[in-house]
Amino acid sequence: MHVLEEISVELFPGELVAILGPSGCGKSSLLSIIPGLSKPDGGRVVVLDSPATGSALSIGMVFQDPVLFAWRTAFENVMLPLEILVENGSDITTEQERGLRVNAALSRVGLAGFEDSLPHELSGGMKARVAVARALVTDPAVIIMDEPFASVDDISRSALNLRLLEIKRDTEAAMVFVTHSIGEAVLLADRVLMLSRRPARVILDIPISFGSIPRNEELSETPEFSQYVRQLRLALKEAAL
Amino acid sequence: MQHSSDFAVKRGGVSGVVQPVLLFLVLLGVWELTCRVFGIAEFVVPAPSDIGRQLATNGTRILWHTGITVAGAAAGFLIANALSFGTAVFFTYAPVAERSAYPYLVALKSVPIVAVAPLITLWMGDGFGSKVAMAALITFFPMVVNATLGLQSADRRALDLMKVLGATDRQIFLKLRIPAALPYIASALKISAPLAVVGAIVAEIAGASSGIGYLILVAAYKVETPLMFACVLAAALSGLLFFGFAVNVEKWLTSHRGRRRTTLTLTDKQPQLSTIRQDLS
After folding, report:
1. What is the pLDDT of residues A109-128, one digit of tens each?
2. From CA B44, how far away is CA B234, in angstroms rounded?
3. Nearest neighbour of B273 by CB, restricted to A35, A57, A100
4. By the number of CB atoms within 10 A of the CB, which of A151, B114, B228, B270 ranks highest?
5. Mean pLDDT lowest among A166-170, B121-125, B135-139
6. Is there a contact between A99 and B264 if contact means CB atoms under 8 Å apart?
7. How many whole angstroms separate alpha carbon B182 and alpha carbon A72?
8. Does the distance separating the beta carbons of A99 and B273 come in below 8 Å?
9. Predicted confidence band at B257 (pLDDT cuts at 50, 70, 90)?
10. Nearest C-alpha of chain A: how many angstroms from B91?
11. How many whole angstroms separate alpha carbon B219 and alpha carbon B49?
12. Which residues of A191-214 are buried (b: 16+ CB within 10 A; e: fewer)?
């Protein structure tokens, strides 16, 4: 059975696209196809005009769980993608500069000072931040986030979302963000895609724009925000039918 | 790192060492006194002083036989670990082989291998070979079962991550599978190291011309009970030696976990990455 049906999505640099859809609609399948973890029956993924190879340079991935290596410090976990690239022959800079990039990625997610911490010494939210830093460190063209903060409590989650908006402001990467939360999608995304039930199609593709209203904690109290949420909730209801 | 090694003196301090030693001396005294007061015959239960005398007069002989046993156990232990680790790696990349053979390995792990000692002696004679074979046989199964579990303990999503990062099979093995397997391997080492000594001694008791097991048999035939006690003591110390070795290997294997401290120092406009601390504790 087809899980996905004719999904064609174009991403632009610096854009954050949120994907919403009923549970089990095939979001995860889509996300595993983009980095090349599973092969589509047809079609292809193109990153920066060349077919995606699943190489760390073009795609960064943040999974539902942080998936940190327990025996590596935060610094070493974030270093992992660079380590693999270098060993496989990409000459991205010197060891010194790699260290700087790791530290820069860690401070972008607000974890400066936690370089030497082992995963078991970090809270759930901090682990999620390390996972985001690990995706950022290679400066990928696309960052895929599969409900990255799903296992984090609400308070940390809203802090993480605000942090993500900051990161988004100074990155060129296109971000794909899968979530179950309509509010989260509206807060973060420049565009929201709604998928139907299996076989999944894109049934809605709307731009989210707040004009001059800054995206922050107060955004959810604006009528514009509520308007988007209402629209998406109705669409999601239809999609689930 | 908070290592909770089995050897660690939990309470710490001097009393952690002094108290067990005191208890040992007290027990030794009670033993000595009991033997003397009740006039227990030396060939039934020798007093500590009798055993001490035995160690003094027969020391070199006991040491020589212990050395042979320890060498046989060590050789078997090393061979078995190399073979079992190789098997575990093979299983990881040949799941069909693993699915077919693993249930038998788990079953064999719980078979009392000592029962086959006479067979080994029959095949390999009473020389060094049968000690090595028995020690290898007894240590092979715990290690192969644990190492296989360990190499496959890597989370599926961690494997996905490595693929997304473009890691080669070799990198996945070295950076993910091996580190994930280390705790499993370490605990198997601690189980199997003292067992190697057991294996070698069992082989000797089944038939040998040297080794601590042989000496125990000889002493038993001649009813030289103090010599038997001295031999048991030597065997016990050999087992401890192996266990201590395994504990140290475990420490070494896990010492890379979170020990490397890499810290960044920024000086004006010249950023420098320097490894500041190599924690040695």
Report:
1. 988 889 898 999 998 889 99
2. 19
3. A100
4. B228
5. A166-170
6. yes
7. 13
8. yes
9. low
10. 23
11. 18
12. bbbbbbbbebbbebeeebeeeeee
Residue B271 has pLDDT above 60, yes or no: no
Q: How far is B142 from chain A (nearest CA, A)?
A: 24
Separation of CA B56 from chain center: 28
A150-164, B39-53, B239-253: least confident range: A150-164
Contact pairs from chain A to chain B, CB under 8 Å = 83
Distance (Å, rounded) from C-alpha A225 to C-alpha A208? Answer: 9
How far is the alpha carbon of A228 from chain B, nearest alpha carbon, in Å?
A: 34
Taking CB atoms and an 8 Å cutoff, what residues of chain B touch A88? Answer: 166, 168, 171
Residue A65 predicted with pLDDT over 60 = yes
How close does chain B come to A69, measured CA to CA in Å?
A: 8
Total residue count of chain A as it appears in this document: 241
DSSP A16-83: EEEEE--TTSSHHHHHHHTTTSS--SS---EETTEE----TTTEEEE-SS----TTS-HHHHHHHHHH
Q: Which helix (H) or strand (E) holds B159?
A: helix B156-164
Tell me if residue B208 falls in helix, strand or coil: coil
* Contact (CB<8Å) B175/A75: no
Q: What span, in angstroms and rounded, lies between the C-alpha atoms of A213 and A222?
A: 9
Q: Find, in chain A, the residue whose alpha carbon is nearest to that of B174.
A: A84
The complex's ipTM works out to 0.84
